[in-house]
Every structure is written in structure tokens, then in C-alpha cells.
Amino acid sequence: MIIFLVGFLVFGGSVNEQSDFETIELYRTALNSHNIETAMSFLAEDYKLRFVGTEFVISKVGLPGIWGWDAGVNGHVEWDLAKGKAAPLTFEGREKNDFFDLLGIARLRFTTTFRIDVNGKIIEQLYEIHPGQPSWEEAMKAVVEWASRHRPAELQGIYPNSQMIYTEKMARRWVALLKEWKSSRSE
């Protein structure tokens, strides 16, 4: 299936020639290869990523930074079709990355639903973390406490006012800090 999807991208398939399911799979492939330009090509101009249970919404223009973060932490998503043969399509998924792994979180399970417009572009994505999943915010407390004592300048640079900055550069700095923290715990 992946070979078909990659071939489709390489040999010039267009969004209008594929099913909604194929669009979503090609989008996921682009996300996992951290190909921001290709991933963006599957989105409608008024695309919104909504996090269920929160007021947090990201528009298309805000995605490159978030996806840069994913590249910096070596992010990877997998999902399986849960329901739907056409839009909206709902998937049960798993997300893993180096940031989570270094915090002791193997993966996060989620449900995501996609709505696709008449032009075959993704117009909306709902993202909902499954109940009972580990909290990376909670897991970070020990790191923040350690870094405030041992690496305060670095912590202030990557976590100013206790706020995450979602860019590839910050992701790489977080991963380096987490590796240092983890190494200090095993000494």
C-alpha cells in the first residue's frame, strides 16, 4: 500500500483522482516523512485542526511550526480506519516520538476524524486523545524541576514562562535536554 501511495505522489497523481481514504493515507505518509510542503497540499485553505475537549484550534498557516516540532522530535503517527467509507473518516491512532519516549511515554492513543471538501481537500481534522493516556505535561514536571537546578538558562530558552514553543529548533533542544536529564538519572 505504501509503495502505491509513494508512487502516486511521485508519478503525479492529483487529489481529484483519488478517494478520500487515499487522500488521508497520502497525507499521513507526508506527515511521517516530515514533508511539510506535500502535507500542506492536501489541506483546504480554510483547514482547521481542532482538539476535542479544548478551545485549541490550529489553522493551516499555523501548521508548519507544529510539523517542524514533529520533525525535531522524530514524530510518527499510525492509524487504522475506525469508521466511514467516505468523508468524514474516523481513525484510531497512535502517536510516538522521541520527546514522549524520553519522558517514559511509549505512545499516545487518539481518535482523529477528517472532513473533506468537494475538491478532495481536507477541511477539518478533529483530534481527541483517548481517556487514561499518560500526561506528558505531568511527566515533564520532573524534567522542569531538574533543569531549573542544573540547566536554568536552557530551560528558560526553550520553556519561557512555562510555555512550549513548537518549532523544529525547540524540539531538537528539548530532545537534547531530555537526553541529558535521562542520563543524569542513570548515574
Question: Could you describe the 3D structure shown?
Answer:
- The longest helix has 18 residues, at 168-185.
- Helix 1 crosses helix 2 (20-32) and helix 4 packs parallel to helix 8 (168-185).
- The protein starts with a helix and ends with a helix.
- The chain is elongated and about 55 Å long.
- It has one domain (1-187): Roll (Nuclear Transport Factor 2, Chain: A), CATH 3.10.450.
- The chain has 8 helices and 6 strands; from the N terminus they run αααββαββαββααα.
- A hairpin with a 5-residue loop joins strand 5 and strand 6.
- With 187 residues, the chain is α+β, with helices and mostly antiparallel strands.
- The protein has helices spanning 2-10, 20-32, 36-41, 63-72, 98-102, 136-150, 152-158, 168-185; strands at residues 43-51, 57-59, 76-83, 89-96, 108-116, 122-129.
- Helices cover 44% and strands 24% of the residues.
- Mean pLDDT is 89; it is low at 1-15.
What descriptive keywords fit this protein?
single chain, 187 residues, alpha+beta, Nuclear Transport Factor 2, Chain: A, six-stranded mixed beta sheet, 8 helices, 44% helix, 24% strand, elongated, disordered N terminus
